[in-house]
Automatic annotation (TrEMBL):
NCBIfam families named in the record: hisT_truA
GO BP of this protein: mRNA pseudouridine synthesis; tRNA pseudouridine synthesis
Record keywords: Coiled coil, Isomerase, tRNA processing
Coiled coil: 5-32
Domain Pseudouridine synthase I TruA alpha/beta residues, every copy: 241-350
Species the sequence originates in: Acer yangbiense
Keyword tRNA processing: yes
Entry GO MF terms: pseudouridine synthase activity; RNA binding
InterPro entries linked: PsdUridine_synth_cat_dom_sf, PsdUridine_synth_TruA, PsdUridine_synth_TruA_a/b_dom, PsdUridine_synth_TruA_C, Pus3-like, TruA/RsuA/RluB/E/F_N
GO cellular component: cytoplasm; nucleus
Protein's name in the database: Pseudouridine synthase I TruA alpha/beta domain-containing protein
Pfam families noted in UniProt: PseudoU_synth_1
Lineage top rank: taxon: Eukaryota
């Protein structure tokens, strides 16, 4: 009986060994298939979306707002769809209006995002040469839900029409070098035909391979629009000037103690100025803030405190107190300014000169002019509706269910509850990780070193 048992164990080990060998062979074959860029597979794709530089008629077939998940899966499986083409590292300047998007970055797992729409357009136009990582994709700013931009910059490898290249024996694709523009794909025109109306490419520029849209950026400028109403603009500007310079802005942001450990940022300029627009005597104004980099929600937190100062709820000196993190290690709880009026105005780089063909530039101008006229028509309709409203009764008590809304009393910032400090957050994280480490070691000790299948009982 003992010999039968030993024989059975031997057979099981032999089968397990064979399974491992088959799994290794399977992985090897799958790797070879994933690298295949056979032209026959490419021909099976839907041919309705071609290079828009070759046919303006076919360019019109691209649906700007649509999404074909079946086609996307095919493109994702064919990782090297255009890996037999020349490629070029370029920077794209992007304009978008963020009202309907869940922010710029696609990592938030919420759709739609600006980034996901851009990559959908890149797939449709066959400009991608690889996935995000292999394309060396980077973005300058990661704007939040509802925030717009007229100067966002991204960089990545795209397909090129040029043949001059720097060959690399370790790569199946050849990268075009230099600043030549003539004869290149009209990236602006091609992409804008495939993008939705609220996302447009303004220009493109060839960049060196060590360029990063995030880390090569010298300065970013934000603009925040607001109606002046009864705000004290002089006090707001005086307070805003205190932001200029290098400070610890942990009390003016949403703290991310897991990933961010340095909260010092440099603001280079601050300005409050009127815009060329009024409504019933109310002046539209703008806050312009320029700096090397900004923290998560930093601008909206700064504007929120400035509004408190403009309403005479807080003194100008509250800025000094919040910037002094030794005196104020915990951020008082307050609501950020709304996201819709915030615009990423520009991202500045050394030596970059964005270009755009005359045809693409004219098409973009016509598109934006039409959008402006449409919104002005809508504003005129709303204004007419406003004029058609019934006049308010002088005596509010005569109105049925009428009541005068009580003015919400302001609670001073330093009388409010506070959020945990950075040190307290880190201590909590470290404690949690230590507990998880103990649990992991405990489970590892309980786990058997190998799995032996249950053998049948012998009589």
């Amino acid at each position: 009986m003992s010999e039968d048992k030993q024989d059975l164990i031997s057979q099981i080990k032999s089968l397990q060994k064979r399974v491992k060998e088959l799994e290794a062979d399977n992985a090897k074959l799958m790797s070879q298939v994933s690298k295949c860029s056979c032209g026959k597979i490419e021909e099976k794709l839907d041919g309705s979306v071609r290079d828009s530089t070759n046919s303006s008629v076919e360019g019109r077939k691209i649906e700007t707002g649509g999404h074909n998940p079946r086609k996307k899966k095919v493109v994702e499986r064919m990782k090297g769809t255009v890996n037999h083409h020349f490629k070029r590292y370029v920077a794209l300047k992007v304009m978008y209006f963020g009202q309907r998007f869940y922010g710029f970055a696609s990592e938030a797992q919420m759709e739609p995002t600006i980034e996901s729409e851009i990559f959908t357009a890149l797939e449709k136009t066959r400009l991608l040469v690889a996935d995000k990582k292999e394309s060396q994709y980077s973005r300058c700013g990661r704007t939040d839900k509802g925030v717009s931009s007229v100067g966002q910059v991204i960089s990545l490898y795209l397909r090129s029409n040029l043949k001059e290249s720097s060959t690399n024996n370790n790569s199946s694709r050849e990268a075009v070098q230099g600043k030549q523009i003539e004869g290149e794909i009209d990236y602006v025109r091609v992409l804008n035909r495939a993008l939705p109306k609220d996302i447009q490419i303004i220009g493109w520029c060839p960049v060196p391979i060590d360029f990063s849209a995030r880390f090569s950026c010298l300065a970013r400028e934000y603009i925040y629009f607001f109606w002046s109403e009864n705000l004290n603009l002089l006090a707001m500007e005086s307070a805003g000037k205190k932001f200029v310079g290098e400070h610890d802005f942990r009390n003016f942001c949403k703290m991310d103690a897991v990933n961010v450990h340095n909260y010092k940022r440099r603001v280079t300029s601050f300005e409050v100025s009127p815009c060329d627009m009024r409504f019933e005597g109310n002046q539209l104004c703008a806050i312009k803030i320029r700096g090397s980099a900004f923290l998560w929600h930093q601008v909206r937190c700064m504007v929120a405190v400035l509004f408190m100062i403009g309403q005479d709820h807080e003194s100008v000196d509250v800025i000094n107190a919040l910037l002094d993190t030794e005196r104020t290690p915990r951020k008082p709880q307050y609501t950020m300014a709304p996201e819709i009026p915030l615009v990423l105005r520009s991202c500045e780089f050394e030596g970059l000169q964005f270009t755009c063909s005359s045809d693409a530039g004219q098409a973009l101008r016509v598109h934006l002019q039409n959008e402006c006229q449409m919104y002005q028509l809508q504003a005129a309709i709303f204004h007419e509706a406003l004029l058609s409203c019934l006049p308010l009764a002088k005596d509010q008590s005569l109105l049925k269910n009428g009541s005068v809304k009580k003015k919400v009393s302001h609670i001073p910032l330093f009388s409010r509850p506070t959020e945990p400090s950075y040190e307290e957050r880190r201590a909590k994280l470290d404690s949690k990780r230590e507990v998880e480490g103990h649990i992991g070691r405990y489970n590892f000790e309980l786990k058997p070193t190998c799995h032996v299948p249950k053998l049948p009982d012998f009589v």
